[in-house]
């Protein structure tokens, strides 16, 4: 962070404030880890923070400290809007454009209080008075660790805050396998473990909690996988009917796209998931090496993200979406 931004944050937090902390719609481990980590930090420094998520977060994150305090905008719009109208400061974490909060965007746009952004995605919008944005980092949680340290408050990071930060780093780094995992990342992890963070328990809480239905859904997804071998690409489709038949709940499809990328010789993987309520096909892209799925998602599927992990959406049928994808992939040189 720039020195002037650090001083601006010091000024903003110099007196106790009512503060809203916002993750992106469909919050993942990094979004929940960073918002809850910041929540506990601000609480420790005599502020009145509240995390307001645009929609429900996955069940496998419900064990995280403070998750029971999170307000869900979709479920309680009137109360959440009232809270937003009373706050004096807003932090947005793990996203950099207000449209990423969905319907909640209108409520945020009406606010006249300062916004602070902490995020690691490309091309940030300019709605914040302080923008801490850096694509070098593999997670917003790693940036939150730095953010607290920049404020001279590193000693405030305790086991609770550390657990939140660890969770976000773990999930967004693909369990420390993704390219942006650095020596500094591991040194932060070592520091968190020394603070008492349960580094052996957290992966189990995140990944060893499957239901029978979820495993059946995974089986169907793998059955649906298609290989475009000449294009070094794989993709998976899941229709709304298939989701319903396996009692889908939010979070059940998390990580499935990575199975396609695990196949020898595959450098580009996608998953297409029908959402009948929103009338869209939700898409996740993953890649290995130099292929930029962020650019691919932005250019063709109204999305974006990182070089090797991005998302998008399609407003036409599954069949039309897949046909478009196959046509585009055939033109790539992977």
Features:
334 residues; Diaminopimelate Epimerase, Chain A, domain 1; 2 domains; 12 strands; six-stranded parallel sheet; alpha/beta; six-stranded mixed sheet; inorganic pyrophosphatase (n-terminal core)
* Biggest β-sheet strands, sense, barrel: 6 strands, parallel
CATH homologous superfamily placement of the largest domain: inorganic pyrophosphatase (n-terminal core)
The CATH architecture of the largest domain can be given as Alpha-Beta Complex
Count the DSSP helices.
13
- Strand order in space, largest sheet: 3-2-1-4-5-6
- Average pLDDT value? 95
Determine the structural class based on helices, strands and strand pairing.
alpha/beta
Radius of gyration from the alpha-carbon trace, in angstroms: 20 Å
For this structure, what is the CATH class of the largest domain?
Alpha Beta
Helix content: 25-40%
- Report the count of strand segments: 12
Q: Which series of helices and strands comes N to C?
A: HEHEEHEHEEHHHHHEEHHEEHEEH
Tell me the distance between the termini: 36 Å
């Amino acid at each position: 962070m720039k020195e002037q931004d650090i001083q601006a944050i010091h000024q903003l937090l110099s007196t106790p404030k009512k503060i809203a902390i916002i993750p992106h719609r469909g919050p993942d481990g990094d979004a929940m880890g960073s918002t809850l980590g910041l929540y506990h930090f601000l609480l420790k420094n005599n502020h009145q923070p509240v995390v307001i998520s645009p929609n429900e977060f996955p069940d496998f994150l419900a064990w995280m400290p403070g998750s029971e305090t999170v307000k869900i905008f979709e479920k309680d719009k009137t109360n959440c809007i009232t809270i937003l109208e009373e706050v004096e400061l807003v932090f947005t974490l793990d996203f950099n454009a207000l449209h990423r909060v969905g319907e909640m965007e209108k409520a945020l746009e009406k606010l006249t209080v300062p916004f602070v952004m902490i995020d690691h995605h490309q091309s940030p919008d300019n709605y914040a008075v302080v923008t801490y944005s850096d694509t070098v980092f593999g997670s917003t949680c790693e940036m939150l660790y730095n953010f607290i340290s920049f404020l001279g408050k590193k000693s405030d990071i305790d086991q609770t805050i550390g657990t939140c930060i660890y969770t976000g780093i773990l999930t967004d780094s693909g369990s420390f396998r993704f390219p942006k995992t650095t020596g500094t990342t591991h040194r932060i992890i070592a520091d968190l473990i020394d603070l008492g963070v349960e580094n052996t328990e957290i992966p189990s809480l995140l990944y060893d909690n499957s239901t029978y239905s979820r495993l059946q859904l995974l089986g169907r997804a793998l059955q649906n996988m298609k290989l475009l071998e000449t294009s070094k690409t794989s993709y998976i489709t899941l229709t709304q009917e298939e989701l319903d038949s396996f009692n889908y709940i939010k979070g059940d499809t998390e990580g499935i796209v990575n199975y396609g990328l695990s196949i020898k010789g595959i450098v580009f993987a996608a998953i297409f998931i029908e959402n009948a309520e929103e009338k869209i096909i939700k898409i996740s892209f993953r890649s290995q090496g130099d292929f930029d799925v962020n650019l691919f998602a932005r250019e063709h599927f109204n999305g974006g993200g990182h070089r090797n992990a991005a998302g998008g959406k399609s407003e036409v049928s599954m069949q039309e979406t897949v046909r478009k994808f196959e046509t585009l992939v055939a033109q790539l040189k992977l």
